[in-house]
Specification:
Elements lengths: L2 H15 L12 E7 L4 E10 L2 E10 L2 H14 L4 H15 L5 H8 L12 H20 L8 E2 L2
Parallel strand pairs: 1-4
Antiparallel strand pairs: 1-2, 2-3
Helix pairs in contact: 1-2, 2-5, 3-5
Length: about 150
Amino acid sequence: MSDLRELYQEVILDHGQRPRNFHAVEGATADAEGFNPLCGDKVHVWIAQDGDTLRDVGFTGEGCAISKASASLMTQAVKGRSVAETERLFEGFHALITGQAAGATAAEDLGKLTVFAGVAEFPVRVKCASLAWHTLKAALAGGRTGVAAPVTTE
């Protein structure tokens, strides 16, 4: 295994075992729940917005290391960004994990999220890596806490 792959694996394992922002957000303005019936991953994403900015983002849930690590790194990546920036990040991340991203551009735009580039080699894991992102998107579309319908990736 290359040194870079080992580093990527270590980052995913670290975030999977010790996820960052693993909590419900106090004063959340929106939230959504996501579920992957193929593997049983579950995630609940909360956001607190100030105008167009995601002031705080948190999640809870259970699932595989890829699912938890993706949610953890996602919360770090989108906190403080505008909704438009978050949507562009979602598109770039989705292109990366489905093998449609251009290498150097993806690394520059996605930063630490590039650790998930290897997911493209395992199509069954794409849903694990994207569950939190789809759930975040549903929360952004859903408005007030408790309004957004559950997201199911099939």
